[in-house]
Amino acid sequence: MPELPRVPLGRWIDSFVDLLRDNLPWLFTGIRTFFATLLDAVEWLVHWPHPLVFIVLAAVLVFWLRSWQFSLFTVLSFGLIWSMDHWDVTMDTLALILVATIVSVAIALPVGIAAARNRTVSQLVRPVLDFMQTLPVFVYLIPAVFFFGIGKVPGLIATLVFAIPPGVRLTELGIRQVDKEVVEAADAFGSTRNQTLVRVQVPLAMASIMQGVNQVIMLALSMVVVAGMIGAGGLGGEVFRGITTLNLPLGFETGLAVVILAIFLDRVTSSFRDRAAAAEA
Amino acid sequence: MAAIKADGLYKVFGPNPERGLKLLQEGTPRDEVHATTGNLGAVIDASFAVQPGQFFVVMGLSGSGKSTLVRMLNRLYEPTAGTVHIDNEDVRALGKEELRKLRATRISMVFQSFALFPHRTVLENVAYGLQVQKVAKDERFERARTALQQVGLGGWEESKPSQLSGGMRQRVGLARALATNADVLLMDEPFSALDPLIRRDMQNQLIELQQELQKTVVFITHDLNEAMLLGDRVAVMKDGQIVQDAIPEEILSAPATDYVREFIQDVDRTRILTAETVMVDPKGTLASGHGPSVAAREMREQQMTDMYVVARNRRLVGAVSDRDVTEAARRGIQRVDEIVRHDYATAAPATPVAELFDLAVEHAMPIAVVGEDGRLLGVIPRVVLLRALGANANSAGTADGGVTGPDGGVTGPDAVGSADAAPTATGAGHSEEATTDA
Ligand SMILES: Nc1ncnc2c1ncn2[C@@H]1O[C@H](COP(=O)(O)OP(=O)(O)O)[C@@H](O)[C@H]1O
Ligand SMILES: [Mg+2]
């Protein structure tokens, strides 16, 4: 049997990566510096208040958004994290998630809007999103480390790849779902495309967009542990340390902190979504 | 000079509109073009003129291209071919900015599903067109208030659309269109989504407003009665084409095609009084969740011995008498819907009046007129039936007021007598059935 010639795809990619790294070092340094600065700033912000102050603020927020029961849960669960002495790493993780969310939304919103307004854009974006979502995490973790080294920035970038697609999808869906006659009405009174977008389409897609933000946050959280493996620190790093050193108490406690953070962020963002939905009714 | 003039308008939807257009212009039948090329001629060679202050009605069955036609007038849909002139200005030649200006200041539109902005208050909705024109806040809210007063909605400024009933929502839609002071008003089936009684109110209100404001109106409907009542001129559309364009009397006396003739037979049928045309608003109804003591007080206030009970969406649940209610209050029953009875008569909106007499004799309560969805649309007390029987039909309802056939008015007994032979049409959409059973 004649031997099938081997396509050296892996080597090509390798050369391509080398090429990028050798010729565009300023690009990667630039991206790295940008994200590192952003992360530092947000980390400083969440570490700044005393844990007690932070817990009170969070409790007031969820009381206003939801109920006193959830407010109580917030006080008890965050108090538990504090008393277990995992406060600082939890705040590191919160900062990472906040930055990942802000950047994801900043990218997903305009892309989703463009896709909703233009069929060609939509058709181009869709396979890219599919690719981003189906690619196993480790496949892009490797180049991320390669380009940006070990630490928080590659962790953040890997998180972005994972978290952006639902943001784009739900933005596009939300805008496309706005009642056709309502959009026609805006146009019929002489709105520009941008006025229709800002005054009608985006407000009426807000519930769907907030659902997207919620998913972005949840996916970012699920990446925390993975990011911890490449030195992003935070709760993920602790969980990973717990696993590798067979330190069950540490693994359990920090794992629990991740869950608490997840519940808190999920409930808060879904309240925003519910409020947006009520405003549209 | 015509306020609106359309010449040879075409709109072709599909993968290759230009090819569809060419075939249609060569005279290929619409169905054939659609079957062979997948291109649909939604509007085919439509030409008409509307004079300033004229009320121009476009009537046709669902799918005949009415919405598409009206949307080409302000270029919400870009015509595939043909021209539109508004006050001698070629609308298709306008640039983006000029088109926006035209829409903001000279043409406004009212929609079938109301198309209000749900996240804005009533006042902000009405002021929208002025906001687009960058009219200062004080002035635009002032003008929006005036428009709301014109449609009888003063006092509802700060409500959200979701808090209003269907009829009120469409009044907001109308006020929004009036607020810009545009001379041309496009109305795409504005009343089709409303209950019959409300629709009648809205038609009457529109007639009054039009007498005062003298707008140039293009009004779309699939309801023949509505067309005859409102139109100074009526164009009948079928499969994308205008098959007749004439004053209402002429449409009735000299139908241009068999299709129009079928439509008119439908008029003859609807001139026969139906439950829908004679019914009146129930003076009071009870909510199914109310307790018996609340119900008792309500009945005392309205001085009624029997009342219909409706669920929140106005679905008819049953009826109660004052005696049952008092008894229930004594026994400590919580909700009136637990004690309703069903010994009353119901009728579909299209039931001929002739069929109602026996029902009326057999039951003490007014006949309940119930829509297909089970909602209570109106009631027919016995006195109303007697009036319909005795008097000239014109005095019984308003929906037939504008229909003056070739032979003048319709007399009650005749019309009622022939009703037995007429098939029962369904609800407000009788005209939809014209081709199938006429
Ligand atoms: N945007 C569109 N794309 C494709 N086909 C359409 C579109 N709008 C309307 N049509 C078709 O054009 C025809 C006329 O529709 P329409 O103007 O809405 O009729 P009407 O308002 O009289 O019910 C229908 O067959 C409809 O399916
Ligand atoms: Mg239509």
Descriptive account of the structure:
The complex is a heterodimer of chains A (281) and B (438). Chain A is mainly alpha-helical and 281 residues long. Chain A is 86% helix and 0% strand. In chain A, helix 5 runs antiparallel to helix 10, helix 6 packs across helix 8 and helix 10 packs parallel to helix 11. Chain B is built from 19 helices and 16 strands. In chain B, the strands form 4 sheets. Chain B has a 6-stranded mixed sheet, with helices on both faces. With 438 residues, chain B is of the alpha/beta class. Chain B folds into 2 domains: 221 residues, P-loop containing nucleotide triphosphate hydrolases (Rossmann fold); 161 residues, CBS-domain. Chains A and B meet through helix 9 and helix 10 of A and helix 4, strand 6 and helix 6 of B. The complex binds adenosine-5'-diphosphate (ADP) and magnesium ion.
Derived from helix and strand composition plus strand pairing, the structural class of chain A reads: mainly alpha
Number of helices of chain A: 12
Spans of at least 5 consecutive residues with low confidence of chain A: none
Average of per-residue pLDDT values of chain B: 84
Main sheet record of chain B? 6 strands, mixed
> What is the global morphology of chain B?
globular
Which ligands appear in the coordinates?
adenosine-5'-diphosphate, magnesium ion
Side-by-side strand order of the widest sheet of chain B: 6-7-8-3-9-10
What is the H level of CATH, i.e. the homologous superfamily of chain A? MetI-like
Looking at the structure, the CATH topology of chain A is MetI-like fold
CATH A-level architecture of the largest domain in chain B: 3-Layer(aba) Sandwich
Shape summary of chain A: flat
Regions with little confidence, pLDDT below 50 for 5+ residues of chain B: 391-438
Termini gap of chain A: 68 Å
What is the chain-wise order of helices and strands of chain A? HHHHHHHHHHHH
Tell me the CATH superfamily of the largest domain in chain B: P-loop containing nucleotide triphosphate hydrolases
Tell me what the CATH architecture of chain A is: Orthogonal Bundle
CATH topology of the largest domain in chain B: Rossmann fold
